[in-house]
Design goal:
Elements lengths: L15 H4 L20 H11 L3 E2 H4 L5 H6 L4 E4 L3 E2 L9 E2 L9 H11 L4 E6 L10 H14 L4 E5 L7 H9 L4 E3 L9 H4 L5 H13 L4 E7 L5 H13 L4 E6 L16 H14 L3 E4 L9 H8 L4 H5 L2
Parallel strand pairs: 2-5, 3-4, 5-6, 6-7, 7-8, 8-9, 9-10
Antiparallel strand pairs: 1-2
Length: about 325
């Protein structure tokens, strides 16, 4: 069964005048980070490269790569490094992927076993050309990590699988500890920011996952021209489908070919978003200029009370 969002029409664009304005200008001081060149950072890089793997940390140009890799953690990106969609905010390559690496789940599990971590995050490119959108590889990766490192909890950041219930259920049946699917932006910006996605479909992914007992999570970028009220409205929508964890961060333009930053959102505004989200009932919220979907993921799972499969089997 495939979720049908064809009857959903885009909302009027209340922020059109803001979005038509100039780019935000130079990056403020609070967004400048230093990349480490030694220690755990280089150790993590060697483990990733040695297993022939991709990470979203590198492919998407995450500003937290130094902090996370320096702590010996990484978000692994499966299903290759070429995406079938062309979202205008994302640095991951767009094109026609070739082939499917059935051995990838075991290599990811081997890498996780080589790293001193308690929580692994697995994401992917979109593979819309595959019948299940790559869901079976997600499931195999979850199970491979559990076999090698049963004490490690597993979070997956999944695509929308084109609204396929069967594909989504393949991932859910593998029992990840956290199921993450990002709405990314406000509804009025979808046609510009992620033209091949649908806001209603993303909410459906989260609602379906929650109805199957998943601990759910979603992320939102700001600085693309949305209003503060629109951000609050998205948070309300997420809570309405039972979302447990929210992350909010500043959009950063990967290249000049991507959408420009319309506004540098100040830290005080991120603090207001966090307070509003917690008041709505989110169990954990990360909100700040450098926050990304997997930022402090282990902290989020602990705060949200997500119980790993390992802890269920070994009380």
């Amino acid at each position: 069964m495939v979720y049908d969002a064809s009857r959903t029409t885009a909302a009027p664009d209340p922020g059109a005048a803001v979005r038509a304005g100039p780019a935000a200008g130079r990056r403020p001081e609070w967004l400048k980070v230093t990349l480490p060149q030694r220690g755990a950072f280089q150790d993590t890089r060697r483990i990733v490269q040695g297993n022939g793997l991709h990470t979203v940390c590198e492919s998407a140009g995450c500003p937290n790569i130094g902090e996370c890799w320096g702590a010996g953690t990484a978000t692994f990106m499966i299903l290759g490094d070429i995406c079938t969609r062309g979202c205008r905010f994302c640095a991951v390559k767009t094109g026609r992927p070739t082939g499917l690496d059935r051995a990838e789940p075991e290599r990811v599990a081997q890498a996780v076993a080589s790293m001193p971590i308690r929580h692994a995050v697995i994401t992917s490119v979109n593979r819309d050309e595959l019948e299940d959108g790559g869901a079976s590889i997600f499931a195999s990766t979850i199970r491979a990590i559990r076999r090698r490192t049963p004490g490690v909890s597993v979070e997956v950041l999944i695509p929308d699988f084109m609204g396929s219930r069967e594909a989504l259920d393949i991932v859910i049946d593998a029992a990840p500890d956290v199921l993450n699917h990002n709405v990314e932006t406000v509804p009025s910006l979808y046609r510009t920011v992620r033209p091949q996605a649908k806001y209603a479909r993303s909410l459906w992914v989260l609602a379906r996952s929650k109805s199957r007992g998943m601990k759910t999570k979603s992320s939102l970028m700001v600085g693309l021209g949305e209003t503060e009220d629109e951000v609050v409205s998205v948070l309300c929508d997420l809570r309405a489908v039972g979302c447990d964890i929210a992350t909010i961060g500043q959009y950063l333009q990967p290249t000049t070919q991507h959408l420009p930053v319309r506004r540098w959102v100040p830290p005080a505004e991120f603090a207001r978003h966090r307070e509003a989200a917690l008041a709505m009932g989110f169990r954990h919220v990360e909100s700040g200029p450098l926050v990304r979907s997997s930022y402090h993921a282990e902290r989020a799972i602990e705060s949200a009370g997500a119980e790993s499969l390992a802890s269920k089997e070994n009380p």
